[in-house]
Amino acid sequence: MLLIVWCLLAAPAAAQTEPAAPPAPAAAAAESPTPPADEGAIDEASRRVRRMADELRSPFCPGKTLMTCTSSNAYDLRKEMLNMVNEGYADDEIMRLLIERYGDQISNPPQPWYTFFVPFLPFLVLAGLLFWLVRRWRNRGVAEAPAPTLPEAGADADRLARLRARVREDVDL
């Protein structure tokens, strides 16, 4: 539990000490994408590239999308995608070309609805375990009634004889 708290508190401090992403190389800046006709087209092309890059896994940064990867290779690939958009390629064509080049691992299929619960699963298991332990602890104090013991055979016979004698006395009155 303390480890979790420590990780939560240390994460913001670690994020502040991380170096910023390196600026784009000067050579990459010289190779500008094909210029679109107007500013509206620039915004539309950028929006399309951002959407596609958000849907693709990065082949350069494991576990990240192409949009969130800070690798210079990812930057070059996003720039290449922008060139393709400006040249008139459809989004499906660009996606198909990238999947052909990098394989199916670049596609980022939508996750099933139940994956939402995966982060909460450890907490649910812990809550169930605590519930079980508390019930067990509370029920431990309540002892079950002891099972009735069988009286000795001789004691039963003596008692029966006394009761019969008493009944005879009452009847003989």
> Low-confidence stretches at least 5 residues in length (pLDDT < 50)?
12-31
CATH homologous superfamily designation of the domain at 31-111? Cytochrome C biogenesis protein
Mean pLDDT: 77
The CATH topology assignment of the domain at 31-111 is Helicase, Ruva Protein, domain 3
Number of beta-strand segments: 0
The CATH architecture of the domain at 31-111 comes to Orthogonal Bundle
Beta-strand proportion:
under 5%
Based on Cα principal axes, name the global outline: rod-shaped
| CATH level 1 class label of the domain at 31-111 | Mainly Alpha
Q: What is the H/E order?
A: HHHHHHH
Task: Describe what this molecule looks like in 3D.
The protein has helices at residues 2-17, 26-30, 39-55, 72-86, 91-102, 121-141, 153-171. The protein is an all-alpha fold and 173 residues long. It has a domain at 31-111: Orthogonal Bundle (Helicase, Ruva Protein, domain 3).
